[in-house]
Amino acid sequence: MNAATERAIQIGILVVILGGWQIGTMTGLIDVFFFPAPLDIGTQIASWVADTSFYRHVGITLTETVLGYLIGTGLGVAAGVWLGLSRSAARILDPFIKGLNAIPRVVLAPIFVLWLGLGLWSKVALAVTLVFFITFFNAMQGVREVNPVVLSNARILGANRRDLLRHVYFPAAASWILSSLRTSVGFAVVGAIIGEYLGSSAGLGYLIAQAEGNFDATGVFAGIIILSIFVLLIDTVLNVVEKRLITWRPSAGEERPA
Amino acid sequence: MSAAVVRAVPQPPMPASPQAQPSQAKSMVSVDNVTMAFGSFVAVQDVNLTIKDGEFVSIVGPTGCGKSTILNAIAGLLQPASGSITIDAKPVKGIQGNIGYLFQQDALLPWKTAIENTELGLMFRREPAGVRREKAMAWLAKVGLRGFEHRYPHQLSGGQRKRVQMAQALITEPQVILMDEPFSALDIHTRHLMQNELLRLWQEDRRAVVMITHDLEEAIALGDRVVILSAGPRSHIIESFDVDLSRPRDVAEIKLDPHFMDLYRNIWASLRGEVEKSYERRD
């Protein structure tokens, strides 16, 4: 099956689902209160996109996501590299880390609102707690799985501790971290949105919460679609970033000759 | 022919290796009564070994006889349980800056290009960027990798990666070069090529070399001396053979030399018993 046929089938599936849905709402088979008509959702999205204040919401969610992601990864890498290098520290802190990681992050949201207010930072904090552990475990694993031969080689070539960190441990951990880049950014978005949903005055999560408060299912669905487009866009950006940063890794299909 | 070759050192010898006459060369590496142990397991016991400056010593022994631990002790990666090791009359305490180590496995940093890998040793010695780049370019050209400077290790073949490793290990002009079965992972043709390449580089600027191998042909073809280790545990040196084959040598051709075959027979007679012993213990 060639690419054009596959694409045609994909479009066909979409048309059947949306068309059936639309017809169902028009004939009254589907209750528009719970499942608003696709055309109405489209109109809602179009009106948001045309409105400049919508971009303020997107901007705020994006800021929260990016801040949460950067702070979370930064702390995660630092802690992961440290505990990856120091086995005894890792053993001592292990139960605490496991305990903290076991907390369902959503229940922290009210605490963060209490501590940091309804503004940006309570959402960033929630995103950080989600991103941190993913990066942390990956960084620790990356440092622990540094090839011992490569390590010995660098030491014999004269690397001191700082050289080893910079030229061996960090790049080794970086490939692990970057390969989990997308997972953790997904969590950063989740953190920001949940934070907004639970209490805020702006952002995409706020838009959805507001629509829900008005029993406006169209708004909720429109918000969901906007969110998934938002995540897809971030994903595309990350894909490019990852390719740029890990040029040294063989890409899939490019085999290492013997 | 051999005398002419020994004197035909193209570069002035380094201050650390004044060795116009190899017979009078000073001792570079000295291993005295060294025992290597891991807990209660004694890998190597009471090893005495002296390597002269500019001498190429091959250590052969059955698998699992602790050959690598001796090398790692000389490199300062491992601490002997007893005995002492000196390099150029200075005791080895931890990793020294005067060692070049050629590993069996891929030891290149996969996230650095060929040129970045080559200049690593100079970078750790804080040489200015321009100088080290220039030297690294020259070394890569020397090992036949001109035009491959900006390839990552995964974009190079096994033989090419080994060449980069050679350049990386030799660029710092180490006093002692240690090799741990450096070519055993390569296919036979690439191996011959790399062995000749290694001999060529070493001939240009003779350093003390300790090479570990399980391949007796390689040991004789490359070395000035072949040292036989007994089967482990508690492995020790049984015998040492001088290899008086003329240099420069061609690794593929020298194997047809009648004198090479005599040497091979003699050394194999000594090694065979140990190999058999090591297999018996395994079963």
Explained architecture:
The complex is a heterodimer of chains A (258) and B (283). Chain A is an all-alpha fold and 258 residues long. Chain A has two domains: 30 residues; 210 residues, MetI-like fold (Orthogonal Bundle), CATH 1.10.3720. Chain A is 80% helix and 0% strand. Chain A is built from eleven helices and no strands. In chain A, helix 2 packs across helix 11. The longest helix of chain A has 34 residues. The two termini of chain A are 34 Å apart. The C terminus of chain A is likely disordered. With 283 residues, chain B is of the alpha/beta class. Chain B folds into two domains: 191 residues, P-loop containing nucleotide triphosphate hydrolases (Rossmann fold), CATH 3.40.50.300; 68 residues, no CATH class. In chain B, the strands form two sheets. In chain B, strands 6-7-8-3-9-10 form a six-stranded mixed beta sheet, with helices on both faces. In chain B, strand 9 and strand 10 form a beta hairpin. In chain B, helix 5 crosses helix 6, helix 6 packs parallel to helix 7 and helix 8 packs antiparallel against helix 10. The longest helix of chain B has 25 residues. The N and C termini of chain B lie far apart (48 Å). The N terminus of chain B is likely disordered. Chains A and B meet through helix 7 and helix 8 of A and strand 6, helix 4 and helix 6 of B. Chain A: It is a multi-pass membrane protein. Chain A: It is found in: Cell membrane. Chain A: One of its GO terms (cellular component) is plasma membrane. Chain A: Its main location: membrane. Chain A: Keywords: Cell membrane, Membrane, Transmembrane, Transmembrane helix, Transport. Chain B: One of its GO terms (molecular function) is glycosyltransferase activity.
Overall average residue pLDDT of chain B: 84
Strand content of chain B: 15-25%
CATH fold-level topology of the largest domain in chain A:
MetI-like fold
**Which consecutive residue ranges of chain B, at least 5 long each, have pLDDT under 50?**
1-22
Largest binding interface between chains: A-B, 27 and 33 residues
Q: List unreliable stretches of 5+ residues of chain A.
A: 253-258
Count of helical regions of chain A: 11
Q: What Rg of chain A is obtained from the alpha carbons, in whole angstroms? A: 23 Å
Would you list the SSEs of chain B in sequence order as H and E?
HEEEHEEEHHHHEHEHEEHH
